[in-house]
Amino acid sequence: MGNQQKQSLSMGVILIFVSTLGFSVYPILGKFVFAGGAALSTVLFVRFVLAALIFWTIVFLREGFPRLPRKTWVTLWGMGGLVIP
Questions:
Q1: Which of 11, 35, 56, 72 satisfies CB 3.0 to 4.6 Å to 68 for a cystine?
Q2: What is the DSSP string of the chain?
Q3: What is the pLDDT, as a whole number, of residue 79?
Q4: Residue 17 has what pLDDT?
Q5: How does DSSP assign 39-52, residue by residue?
Q6: What is the pTM of this model?
Q7: What is the gyration radius of the CA atoms in the chain, in angstroms?
Q8: CB count in 10 Å sphere of residue 47
Q9: Whether 17 contacts 8, CB under 8 Å
Q10: How far apart are CA 65 and CA 73, in angstroms?
Q11: Is the distance from CB of 73 to CB of 81 less than 8 angstroms?
């Protein structure tokens, strides 16, 4: 196994542990949030906004701004922001 493969495997294992930690802590934090009076829609909104910010930060840092045709961007924004809700 080459050095690059070992680094990829190590990063994969680390990401699995981070994901496992997040999924195991979420119900505990949810109890506190719901006890504080937050609604389910608010909790899910904050959860997915934070996930999207983290995802796009990683994309921008690794690859820069995605280069897609304008028509594709408009279609994606329309599907995500107008059609689905």
A1: 72
A2: --HHHHHHHHHHHHHHHHHHHHHHHHHHHHHHHHHTT--HHHHHHHHHHHHHHHHHHHHHHHH-S----HHHHHHHHHIIIII--
A3: 80
A4: 92
A5: -HHHHHHHHHHHHH
A6: 0.58
A7: 18
A8: 15
A9: no
A10: 12
A11: no
Cα separation, 34 vs 40, in Å, equals 8
Tokens standing for 85? 């809700």
pLDDT single digits (tens) 32-74: 988 999 998 888 888 889 888 988 888 888 878 778 888 988 8
pLDDT at 9 over 80: yes
- Predicted confidence at residue 20, as pLDDT, reads 92
- Mark 34-46 as b/e (b = at least 16 C-beta within 10 Å): eeeeeeeeeeeee
Tokens 């897609």 sit at which residue?
Answer: 68
